[in-house]
Amino acid sequence: MKKILQHSLITLSAFGIAGLVHAQPTMTIYEGGNLIATVTDNLAGDSNPATGVISYIHSDALWSFQIDTAQTKPAVGTAGSPEMDISVSANSTGTNALSIWFSDVGFTTPTGPLTANNSGHLTTGTGATESYQVWADNGNNLNTLGQNLANFAPVPLALTNIISGTVSLPSTYSLTEVLTISPVAATGVSVNAGFTIPEPAVSTIAIAGLALFGAARRKQAKG
Hints:
- The chain is α+β, with helices and mostly antiparallel strands and about 220 residues long.
- It has one domain.
- About 20% of the residues lie in helices and about 50% in strands.
- The chain is built from 3 helices and 12 strands.
- The strands form 2 sheets. A 6-stranded antiparallel sheet has the order 2-1-6-11-8-9, with no helix packed on it. Strands 3-4-5-12-7-10 form a 6-stranded antiparallel sheet, with no helix packed on it.
């Protein structure tokens, strides 16, 4: 995993520049640390016509997999209320890791609660581990790992985990998910991972407004 991250920080800087121009969600896939495909929303390789959703099917000597959906705004969430998720079914012929990066730019909620979910199970074979991270980049670049917002360390499948906390970010930033499946032998898996960073609750603002209104009415009554 460390090798993949180090390699990608160098080789994907060009994708970050392109992301600023096109501002389209992008999915990047590695097998055994080697780049297999880069798929941009509504461009070549994306079989889902919906904006904000990428679906992709691939088969080679190492892996056969179907990324049912990789979703972001406007399909799920908004720029002010980020939400992203990845759902994949995959079968390996050996022990080479499968790593999926899903990245989008132009998010705007500076502070809010984050909830990340990570679940999966084996469909065939003897075993695999799975890890999942969520990253933000203050420079608003695609595929750039700046601030780590959530980190699920490698855990054997099956698993169901949830992480929650509060994040503090600049006014505009990008978000990148990194999902890695590492089989111990020929194995089939089904995995779903995602996160949300909702906007501050409107009800909190409404309650504060009602409190001020009530205080003003009480002051008028005393006067």
